[in-house]
Automatic annotation (TrEMBL):
Record Pfam families: GH3 (PF03321), GH3_C (PF23572), GH3_M (PF23571)
Protein's recorded name: GH3 auxin-responsive promoter
Record domain GH3 C-terminal: where: 388-493
A GO term from the CC aspect: cytoplasm
One GO MF term attached to the UniProt entry: acid-amino acid ligase activity
InterPro entries: GH3 (IPR004993), GH3_C (IPR055378), GH3_M (IPR055377)
Highest taxon of source: Bacteria
Domain GH3 middle: 296-362
Amino acid sequence: MAVIGELIRKAIDVYGFIASEPDPGKAQRTELRNLLEKARLTAFGKKHNFTDILASDDIVKAFQQAVPVHDYDKLYNDWWHFLLEGHQNVTWPGGQRYFALSSGTTSNSKAIPVTDDMLDSIRKSGIQQVMSLKNFDMLPADFFEKQIMMLGSSVSLIEKDDHQEGEISGISAANLPAWFRTFYKPGVEIAGIKDWDEKVRRIAQEAPKWDIGSLSGIPSWVEMMLKEIVSYNRVNTIHDIWPNLHVYTTGGVAFEPYRKSLEKLFAHPLIYIDTYLTSEGYLATQKRPDTSSMALILDNGIFFEFVPFTDDNMDEQGRVREDANVLSLEEAEENVDYVLLISTVSGTWRYMIGDTVMITDKQRSEIRITGRTKHFLNVVGEQLSVFQMNQAMEQMQKQYDIEIKEFVVSAVQKDGAYINKWYIGSNRVIDGPEFMNSLDQALCEVNKNYKVARSKSLKTVEAEVIPVEKFYRWSEEFKKLGGQTKIPRVMKEADFLDFERYIRSLA
């Protein structure tokens, strides 16, 4: 296949990419050494004696002893605010051209540095993901000749005095290599449209002119885009417009809640590939068809650490304690919930990204995202992860033959005691009490701690099934519609009550 050969040649020539699986421990030690070597003369590197760490016999242990764990607030308050003020060589060599504005589920805005080295890393990881498609044997011979629809945030970045700001997908798309732009859709002009509804209208108008082989984006917004294309062009499925569409690269949120409704828009099955792209970097990608887990990208500018997600290691604010037990990839075990720490070529150091992960295959360095450190529901001992919530929702979809696109839960006080209250976004409204009884039972089955809490500290549970469009209207008004925006699964009580008031105002 000539085009695959051409892509591989360009990948190797331009980015030094070699399609091989590195030894995990060796690759990670090499990455840490490279990070420390390059950053040793920065202000951060001098403060934390990177030169001495590099001379130690055990570089990983020396690094962990010398450098504290950071969350965003600590890194920003101690270091990154200097970057926004125009200083250079702070946590990574040189100045700062880009900041990624966090578009995750937390309410506080974050400006995360994106260096040129990180952009190179993201491009290399993207090429790894493309090259891994050779492992999926359902693809036709001409697949790599087709175009790629990347539904991300606007490439029209915010201009500041000495840098630009935007979401990571927009920054990445604005820096695509010239050879790739032939494949990239919707193209820079349409991708630069900031208004979501206008962007989707333009995509729907132009869609028949494109020959899309794969698409990528957060499931909820991809589904809205595909529905608009199908409706605008008065066809039955997206394959009436894009007959060569074979691959959907998903990420950002769990895919399974969207599978059923998305597949109604397809004429034939797609290959689904999960990815782990965050504002801080491209961390992992699914590399083989017989698993839904993702392989950590070990040799591309990121060093990973793992903190067992236990009360002993976490404080009341959901942050890693100073004396926490922190493990390298070699020391971590399978089937344990870990808080993920990363050190990267953007100058994040032992940075708590906010996600919890589980290693599913240590030999292959494969993981599954299980939730967020602040999005575990554990007010009265429920200890429910988002992963377990998603498992229960999949069961509810099958039991009630419905589509559950979004949901949110909170522990709220009622009559002097705590209850768990849920809002479920579905394609049709069903009886809340009956649904809640079934959901309650399913949660007891997936989590023994929840079952204990239900018999003791958790008085009751309530649920209301509402049209999923109400979630999107809330997102449009209070967060942002489209792009890479994610709707939270767990809210604090005050935020949840504000959400509830807004939902009731739409009735």
